[in-house]
Amino acid sequence: MTPVFCCGFECGVLSTVDLEQHVFIVGSVAFTTSTKRSGARALRVNPTVGFAYGYVGLNLGNVSIVVMRAYVNVTSNPIVSSGILGFQDNAGSTQAGLAYDTVSGQYFAGFDDGATVTKGSTGVTLSAGWHLIDVKVDVSANPWKCDVQVDGTALGQASLAAAASTCDPAIFCGNYLAGIETFDVTYDDCLVSKTAGDYPLGAGYVNHFVPTSDGTHNIAGANDFERGDTGTDIINSTTDAYLLIDEVPLPSGTVNEADCQRAVDPISTDYVECVFGPAPGISTPTVGPRAVEAVLAYHQAGTGPGIERVFLNDNGTTGEILDTGTAAGVTTYRYKSAQFADPPSAASAWTVVAGNGNFNTRANVKARGRKVA
Questions:
Q1: Of 198, 217, 252, which residue is a domain's last?
Q2: 311-315 average pLDDT score
Q3: Cα distance between residue 207 and residue 243, in whole Å
Q4: Domains contained in the chain, number
Q5: Residues 156, 269 share a domain
Q6: Are 159 and 265 in the same domain?
Q7: How confident is the model over 59-98, as pLDDT tens digits?
Q8: How high does pLDDT run on average in the chain?
Q9: Which CATH number is 147's domain given?
């Protein structure tokens, strides 16, 4: 199995204006901490007039086959036939995935072009509570095909006559095509692959982990890393630097310059290391995760060019999460995520035992930075 993205909507960051935010929204969309399947929060889409959706960008490039697992909790069905979960084609004309049909009152595999839902032959009524939804969309040839399973039972495949195309690499929770719409659906525990053979991804969950302690810092001198704008150095003996980057949800809005790790002018081999552990209310895993998704918030103090690099460390082998290069600095919060289906080390899968790939004790984050004159 080769997952490329997972999201439990734990980041707590929404934006109506900037696609560079982690979850971009249109209409009545909000996090909920009451109706959730796992973790601390889920995403509720609840339009009363007009369309609404949450858009989670995946940064996969243009792909022709996309596979997804998500859980939905339907409080009220759409008042018009429409898609409620899936992907869109790159032309932005069609949404494919789980769709609702008002005539039958059932959910189907379907294509929604904003006027008509082209659905498969068999559907299902969704009772109250959480349901496992598996989706596969294939637009690699004419006709396009959409497969859906609900709680492990396959629905009829939907097909649409259309020339071969690619998918917009983003999850759509809700509907971005319907003009007038009302429904109330909550989403949680998404997992995505671009490998056809991974369908169905099947049951699972997404739990969030946060920095819970300091690792072993490697800081050569003074004014390399500091505690935000306080002027206080982070040094090799510091044990509480993790408190500067452990916010749940991630910071948003007005930048808090004091509550962050600031790279002032370290040499390229310097870093601050923090160790991940379960967030409040999350248990320590007893089996290795299928994938690890790292997401962070970052900004610069000014608009001049600078270098920021963040890595996931697996027993000395690192995988890159962020590398800003020498681009001009952005002083508002930006968000970056990276998927690790396999550990950065030579281990073939994440485990919870000693050695390479041990998520419980050696999935650490290293932050490096260097200002550029």
A1: 198
A2: 90
A3: 20
A4: 2
A5: no
A6: no
A7: 667 789 999 999 999 999 998 899 999 998 888 889 999 9
A8: 88
A9: 2.60.120.200
Distance of CA 223 to the CA centre of its chain: 34
Among residues of the chain, what percentage have pLDDT more than 70?
91
Question: Domain span at residue 251?
Answer: 209-371
Query: CA–CA separation, 85 vs 50, rounded Å?
Result: 17
For residues 13 and 120, state if they share a domain: yes
Query: How far apart (Å, rounded) are the C-alpha atoms in residues 31 and 10?
Result: 9
Q: Is 80 exceeded by the pLDDT of residue 145? A: yes
C-alpha to C-alpha distance for 215 and 117, rounded to whole angstroms: 53
Helix (H) or strand (E) run with residue 360 in it: helix 359-362
Dmax (CA) for the chain in angstroms is: 70
Q: Is residue 118 part of a domain?
A: yes
Secondary structure class of 198 (helix, strand, coil): helix
pTM, rounded to two decimals: 0.91
Q: Indicate the residue among 145, 167, 198 that finishes a domain.
A: 198
Q: Do 214 and 174 share a domain, yes or no?
A: no
- Domain membership of residue 203 (yes or no) is no
Q: Give the list of residues 6+ apart from residue 301 with CB closer than 8 angstroms, or none.
A: 229, 257, 262, 329, 331
Cβ proximity of 86 and 167 under 8 Å: no
Q: What is the rounded CA–CA span in Å between residue 176 and residue 93? A: 10
Give 3-state DSSP helix, strand, coil % of the chain, rounded to 5: 5, 45, 50
pLDDT digits (tens, 9 = 90+) for 148-197: 999 999 999 999 999 999 987 678 888 877 666 788 999 999 999 999 99
